[in-house]
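Trying the structure run again after the queue cleared.
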Amino acid sequence: MTKEIYCRALLLLPVAHSYGHIMLVNNLFVGTTTVCLTKFTPTAFLETIQKYQITVCPLVPHLVKFLNDTPLLKEYNITSVKAVMSGAAPIDTDTINNFEKKTGIPLTRAYGMTETYNAVTRTRPPPDDNRTTVGKVTPYTEVKVINDGGELVCEGEEGELCVRGPGMMLGYANNQTDTSATLDSEGWIHTGDIGYYDQQDFLYTTDRRKDIIKVKAYPVSPHELEEIVKQYEGVSDVAVVGVKHQRLGEAPKAFVVFKPNAKVTAAQIQSHVEDRVASYKQLAGGVKFVDVIPRNPTGKILKKQLKECDLDSEFSV
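Done. Tokens:
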């Protein structure tokens, strides 16, 4: 990224999170003017970009989606923005394409976690960009993909991502149990993320190990089902979690937010999924329409909260 692009950055990410903190430190290191927005509102966000002629903006996926959907965008001039980065949570290809088509701004992605601090991988701007990948491994960082037995897997084969390099955590404070479970004797951090390499050394992430749904012992990827549901016209947002099922043990259930004025039924969503997946991957846990998908400040879906909270009182329409 050139000096011309990286001259005025907008920071609205929480600096207590590694993504926000590394962006702040990086800006200070290279001498980037940084405008901090302490609280997000649609108007304040767009006004700040216009007023300070922001050139680069690190975001999270739900803010990228906000820019895709908001009618307020027509009221502000954001042509000063030359680059947008998305991190902290997965972002789907349609959201990327819609954003770039609507704004004309290239969107790059990065993969990392609090335990690794810095970005583990990063994508390049178009035309070198591959929309379905999280990019290639950053310098001085190693990423390996292993199976349940700890052995390296082949290209194209999914496994757990393990990361090693400078800047990684030394352990969890006062928690040797979790440290031993995450950080091995050779310095590899076992991320709990599932992914794979392709033949060009691009890395792909497909799910979180703890989020995988076991339907009659068959593994089902919530991410795969979420991508399918998002393709249905009228769907604005979705999260899929595993719920207890008397016959299957566990079954996928979709929590769906529909677009304003959209008329979508649970049967339509289920039929849409049934036509595209194997029988054991179908939404046997049902479909529930909600006002909002609960997320943390950096945009990650709070799937545990979806499972445990009384959605009728807190999230449902």
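The two ends are 44 Å apart (CA to CA). Worth checking whether this holds up in the mutant runs.
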